[in-house]
């Protein structure tokens, strides 16, 4: 069962990335699990070239600190394998303008921009290439990636229909809780680094005081009871998802335990649990970033392992698509 997923090195990782995706990756590690820092995707929006390489290494360090073990899975950097771009081109010949135009992430990210790169438009095809290049069965992601995985499936099926059975059609794996962690200041919007204020987004590397302040000033709902009700209590429900994610306890148990404790006590408990959960990740991260040469060596080894899987798949696709063998 091959597993593949990716994360952008766009600044620091937040609790949404962690609870919606990365913490699940940790539990899905085995020799056929492949995780990728998608630096090429990060170039599709305006970015600082002087910082990208450093962010890429730091993102890899944080993934390892969060529990990915490069000996048990494959961890590598997307741009180290040109095969991703090569397959992306071939798949662009199968994907259509109409389906890419329907991608909500393209519309959201493009909105209000003076000019939008072509890469932002074709972004989901590169993502499809990432996944299909590894004969992937399962793609563990947060809820916001659902549409991109659907597109990947559509493109793979169309390719197979046209050129014969060539690509494995993957399934997404979306966790029952944590798939959609919301902004603490605006529980109608998903937690994201690009929100207007950073107060609603807990970063994995925030210090204990900052985490506590952000969680204690989270927007709550009318009423006093701690209940999981996405319609009536989106703020409290979000905090329950976060508490469940970091403690591993079911939401129903937590809602029962804190039902009458009052919002203040409940928020303090969430803040303490998050701080406690992040502390070992942060200290491991501090150790890892102190040795960038070691991280680079781990990523080079990961790229070798990824290449061994990707090359034969790409060769199969090129043959099926009618390209002359070189
Ligand atoms: P990215 O870098 O935006 O996010 C990485 C992962 O974090 C999840 N996520 C969330 N989950 C719950 N609540 C949130 N508020 C939240 N915010 C982010 C995302 O769903 C994702 O799983 N396009 C992808 C990267 C990518 C990829 C791939 C993923 C490129 N190629 C191939 C899977 C397979 C992205 O931008 O994720």
Strand order of the largest sheet: 1-2-3
Report how far apart the termini are. Answer: 31 Å
Helix amount:
40-55%
Q: What spatial form do the alpha-carbon principal axes imply?
A: globular
Count of DSSP E strands?
5
The radius of gyration over CA amounts to 20 Å
Mean pLDDT: 96
Beta fraction: 5-15%
Question: Which stretches are poorly predicted, pLDDT < 50 over at least 5 residues?
Answer: none
Please outline the major beta sheet.
3 strands, parallel
Task: List the helices and strands in order.
Answer: EHEHHEHHHHEHEHHHHH
Structural class of the secondary structure composition?
Answer: mainly alpha
Count of helical stretches: 13
List the ions, cofactors and other small molecules found in this model. tryptophanyl-5'AMP
SSE blueprint:
Layout: E1 3-7, H1 15-27, E2 33-37, H2 39-42, H3 49-65, E3 74-77, H4 83-92, H5 97-101, H6 104-110, H7 118-132, E4 138-140, H8 146-163, E5 171-173, H9 208-216, H10 234-247, H11 251-258, H12 263-289, H13 292-320
Parallel strand pairs: 1-2, 2-3, 4-5
Helix pairs in contact: 3-12, 4-7, 4-13, 7-8, 9-12, 10-12
The chain binds tryptophanyl-5'AMP.
Walk me through the structure.
The protein is mainly alpha-helical and 326 residues long. It is 54% helix and 6% strand. Strands 1-2-3 form a three-stranded parallel β-sheet. The protein has a two-stranded parallel ribbon with strand order 4-5. Helix 4 crosses helix 7, helix 4 runs parallel beside helix 13 and helix 7 crosses helix 8. The two termini are 31 Å apart. The mean pLDDT is 96. The structure holds tryptophanyl-5'AMP. Tryptophanyl-5'AMP binds next to strand 1, helix 1 and helix 7.
């Amino acid at each position: 069962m091959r597993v593949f997923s990716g994360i952008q090195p766009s600044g620091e990782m937040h609790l949404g990335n962690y609870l919606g995706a990365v913490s699940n990756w940790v539990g899905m590690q085995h020799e056929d699990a492949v995780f990728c820092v998608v630096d090429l995707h990060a170039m599709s929006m305006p970015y600082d070239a002087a910082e990208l390489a450093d962010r890429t290494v730091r993102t890899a360090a944080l993934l390892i600190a969060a529990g990915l073990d490069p000996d048990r899975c494959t961890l590598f950097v997307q741009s180290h394998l040109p095969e991703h771009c090569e397959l992306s081109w071939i798949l662009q010949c199968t994907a259509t303008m109409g389906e890419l135009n329907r991608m909500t992430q393209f519309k959201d990210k493009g909105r209000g921009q003076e000019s939008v790169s072509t890469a932002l438009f074709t972004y989901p095809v590169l993502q499809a290439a990432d996944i299909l290049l590894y004969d992937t069965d399962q793609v563990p992601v947060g809820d916001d990636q659902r549409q991109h995985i659907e597109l990947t499936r559509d493109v793979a099926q169309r390719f197979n229909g046209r050129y014969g059975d060539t690509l494995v059609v993957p399934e997404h794996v979306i966790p029952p809780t944590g798939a959609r962690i919301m902004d603490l200041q605006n529980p109608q919007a998903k937690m994201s680094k690009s929100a207007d204020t950073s107060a609603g987004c807990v970063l994995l590397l925030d210090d204990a005081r900052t985490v506590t302040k952000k969680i204690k000033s989270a927007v709550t709902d009318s009423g006093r009871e701690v209940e999981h009700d996405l319609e009536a209590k989106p703020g409290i429900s979000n905090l329950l998802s976060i508490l469940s994610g970091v403690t591993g306890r079911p939401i129903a148990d937590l809602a029962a335990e804190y039902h009458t404790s009052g919002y203040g006590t409940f928020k303090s408990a969430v803040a303490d649990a998050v701080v406690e959960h992040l502390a070992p990740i942060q200290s491991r991260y501090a150790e890892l970033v102190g040795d960038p040469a070691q991280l680079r060596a781990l990523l080079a080894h990961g790229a070798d392992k990824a290449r061994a899987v990707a090359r034969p798949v790409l060769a199969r696709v090129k043959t099926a698509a009618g390209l002359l063998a070189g």
